[in-house]
Structure formats: structure tokens, C-alpha cells
Amino acid sequence: MPDNFPPPPPGNDPGMPPPPGVPPVPADQSNRTVMLILCYLGLLALIPFLLEKNDPEVKWHARHGLVLTAASFVLFIGLMILSMIPLLGLIFALLSFFVAIGIFILFIVAMVKPSAAAAY
Predict the structure, then answer these.
(1) What is the per-residue pLDDT across 72-99, written as a single tens digit (0 to 9) for each?
(2) Four-CA torsion 72, 76, 77, 79, nearest 10 degrees
(3) What does the alpha-carbon distance between residue 48 and residue 61 come to, in Å, rounded to a whole number?
(4) What 8-state DSSP symbol labels residue 16?
(5) CA atoms within 13 A on the CB side of 1
(6) For residue 110, which of 37, 48, 33 has the smallest C-alpha distance?
(7) Could you give the 3-state DSSP secondary structure of residue 88?
(8) Residues 6 or more apart from 120 whose CB is under 8 A from it?
(9) Which residues are within 8 A (CB) of 84 and not within 5 positions of it... i.e. 6 or more apart?
(10) Cβ-count burial of 83 within 10 angstroms (0-12 exposed, 13-18 middle, 19+ buried)?
(11) How is residue 8 annotated by DSSP?
């Protein structure tokens, strides 16, 4: 039986390297991305802070994630106390709602930027 089949397209051979322009993803890069995202998920920032001792960038983001978590906690406690003032309470309660939305957006941006390897 003759071989009348066309050859497979280039790049489909498992033994071939990836095409140019596509950098291979290192095995530890996936773990590093997860750790960078965990840095800005509240107290979960302790996981990369304690586990990734050799990666200074992950440690930096973990420290800043913990500081952001502590600062937002203190801010919300202060706004909660101020919202108990009889006449100004409604204003501080509304302010705390908008501050919560702003902090949520800040944490989302802080998670996306390092995982996309973008400096900010």
C-alpha cells in the first residue's frame, strides 16, 4: 500500500520544539503565578510569605498584600465606629460602601498586574 498521505503540518510533531515566538512556560511559573495572586487575598498572603523564601518578588508582594489587608481592616473599623454617630452615621456608612468598592478594585488590580508580569 503506497504512502499517499500528506506529511503532518510542521509543529504537530511531539518531538519538535515550540514554534518561534512562543516562549516555553517553566514548570515553577504556574506555582509562582498562584503565589502572586494569593498575595492579595487577605490573610492568604501568609502562605506565599512563609513558603516562598527564595523569591524576593513574591515576598515583596506578600508583604504589601498583608499591609493592604491590615490597612483596609483598620479603615473599616474606623468607618464603622464613625458610622455610629447619630447624624453623621449615614454619611460614613455610605462612604464605607464606596471605600469598599475602591479597595476591592485595588486588590483586583494588584492581583492582575504581577501575574501578567507587568511592572507598575
Answers:
(1) 999 999 999 998 988 888 898 899 999 9
(2) 140
(3) 9
(4) S
(5) 1
(6) 37
(7) coil
(8) 113
(9) none
(10) middle
(11) P
Could you tell me the three cell numbers for 64?
Answer: 504589601
Nearest to 107 by CA among 80, 75, 67: 67
One DSSP character per residue, 72-85 reads HHHHHHHHHHHTTS
**pLDDT tens digits, residue range 28-81?**
667 888 898 899 998 999 999 999 888 888 999 999 999 999 999 999 999 999
Q: Taken in order 79, 63, 118, 21, is the CA torsion positive or negative?
A: negative
C-alpha cell at 20: 518561534
Q: Which grid cell sits at 44?
A: 492568604
Alpha-carbon 64 to chain mean position: 12
Which of 56, 37, 55, 53 lies closest to 45 in space, CA to CA?
37
Question: Please, what is the end-to-end C-alpha distance for the chain in angstroms?
Answer: 62
Cβ(36)–Cβ(52) under 8 Å? no
Q: Which three cell numbers stand for residue 41?
A: 487575598
Nearest in space to 92 (alpha carbons), one of 101, 102, 81: 81
